[in-house]
Amino acid sequence: MHISAEQRPDPLKPIPLTVLTGFLGAGKTTRLNAWLKDPAFADTLVIINEFGAVGLDHLLIEEAQGDMLLMAAGCLCCTIRGDLVATLEDLLRRRDNDRIRFFRRVIIETTGLADPLPILQAVLQHPYLAKRFSIASVLTLVDAVHGASTLGDHAEARRQVALADALVLTKTDLADTAAQNTTIGAAREINPFAPWLDEGDALRPEALARPLFRPERLDEADLKAWLGLNPGLSHVPGHDPNRHGKAIEAFAFVSDARVTEGQLIVFREAMRMLLGPKLLRLKGLVAMADRPDQPMLIHHVQSVSEPPVRLQKWPTRDRRTRIVVIAQGAERVQIEGFWNALTQPQSV
Question: In the chain, what are the domains?
């Protein structure tokens, strides 16, 4: 399908990029082959690590040019054999110069043993790629049959779940209700904040471009989910239902304090310096002293700290600061204690 100049979106508008991850056997290959047959993905670029490793259906391939394949449904497939940054830069140049089929969204499919974090860092920390791409989400597939045992045995699987913006349970036709619930429970121990999405809805082209990674432009329901205010979870003062999952700690705390921009800068920098590589995700809505009706949205991915965004209103009636942390071996007492020390009134 040729895209005319009139039909093309603003070239300066960031391209949604989804990181699709999940441990070996989670169903990524099945999903990938289904996409490559679907005309709805004709304007999608799918980047995978090695064709030979994922069992790509050779009947889907119409044309091959080096590492770039044009698929029967019209979408593009590309392999990463070297540096991801160089691959993405090259793809952008070819797209901008009409040397490859025009694409509106990008999906990066990781290997089953991959950590999604380096992909996020490669885009977020690169001055050019951060402008051209917008991380839509880290979407993690979890096998309903073997998911619980996999999460117990493999650190890579736990990190894939910990970093997820949303989780999708796969192979439900092969697992009974008890097995599905056990798998969901094991994943929630690691990341109780990521919502579980219906597989059919979550893996449609338009859904993959939804900005779950940074949802300030979405509705109140999405913001609630981003903050872990999911159905069935209760976070009340003095009680936290979240549990530890194999050295990964997930928790949320609330605060009545309203902070200045200076205090917020100190807190964000302290978290980056104190936790460093331990910090997988930190996100929250912060009540500000200058404009209490307009909270500040903050988001960290390890050492990458995105600029805070001022929201026009609170997504809930509760207008207290809420901080969500998923970290590798970090202690809640240390983080919450620093926040309290920073925000409590100073005695004279």
Answer: 15-208 (3.40.50.300), 233-343 (3.30.1220.10)
